[in-house]
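RECORD TYPE: inverse folding
INPUT: structure tokens
STRUCTURE:
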């Protein structure tokens, strides 16, 4: 795991390193700034460390746009390989602890809606996905988190990293009206229709800020339904 970025600067270059602890503390080379770009060292290191904390890609890109292309490419490659979100985890907009995991429902019925309504009412984060059972039927797995994660106004409505190698077909959010249905029921209707077509579906909630800053209490709580151009995964593979 990468804990921070640091730099060692000499009169001719600045070498940027990542401090890694796995299982012992060590340094990994990230990139090097030449003599003509030494003045960008602090800005680059600061931008990388800020990205570790908040995963604000737009802010990071503003920093990377100021450094040479080779440095920019090396930093991006390192982040992709070593600082990607952990599989199944919320993105860097905010880590949230699991408070209840692997609650299974065999159908999208009133019992499931009541369960989600209760979690949504008290502000728990919700993640949910469909899985194919061994008997050929479909189950829905619900995982609750201790809070919802906020995203800036300009960010895409997602705090759950998309699975690699699977094409996203479309995304629905509860900002899109679906008749008189509330957000929970509307999300279930969209998810059920896609699942009936045999598609992989994931649902999660987030707080969508009205600003491009950390969430400050002004925004909307939303459901997000991602439908993938992929079959419903076998049980245990829904993450």
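DESIGNED SEQUENCE:
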């Amino acid at each position: 795991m990468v804990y921070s970025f640091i730099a060692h600067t000499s009169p001719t270059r600045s070498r940027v390193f990542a401090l890694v602890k796995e299982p012992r503390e060590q340094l990994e080379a990230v990139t090097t700034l030449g003599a003509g770009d030494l003045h960008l060292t602090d800005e680059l290191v600061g931008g990388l460390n800020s990205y570790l904390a908040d995963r604000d890609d737009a802010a990071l890109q503003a920093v990377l746009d100021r450094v040479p292309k080779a440095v920019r490419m090396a930093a991006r490659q390192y982040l992709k390989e070593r600082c990607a979100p952990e599989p199944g985890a919320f993105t860097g907009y905010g880590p949230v602890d699991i408070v209840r995991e692997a609650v299974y429902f065999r159908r999208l019925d009133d019992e499931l809606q009541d369960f989600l309504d209760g979690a949504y009412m008290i502000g728990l984060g919700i993640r949910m996905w469909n899985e194919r059972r061994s008997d050929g039927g479909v189950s829905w797995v619900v995982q609750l988190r201790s809070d919802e994660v906020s995203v800036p106004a300009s960010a895409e409505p997602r705090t759950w990293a998309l699975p690699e190698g699977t094409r996203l077909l479309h995304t629905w959010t509860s900002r899109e009206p679906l008749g008189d249905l509330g957000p929970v029921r509307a999300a279930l209707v969209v998810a059920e229709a896609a699942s009936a077509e045999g598609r992989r579906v994931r649902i999660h909630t987030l707080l969508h800020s009205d600003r491009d800053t950390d969430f400050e209490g002004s925004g909307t709580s939303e459901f997000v339904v991602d439908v993938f151009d992929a079959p419903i995964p076998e049980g245990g593979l829904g993450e």
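NOTES: The first strand starts at residue 2 and ends at 9.
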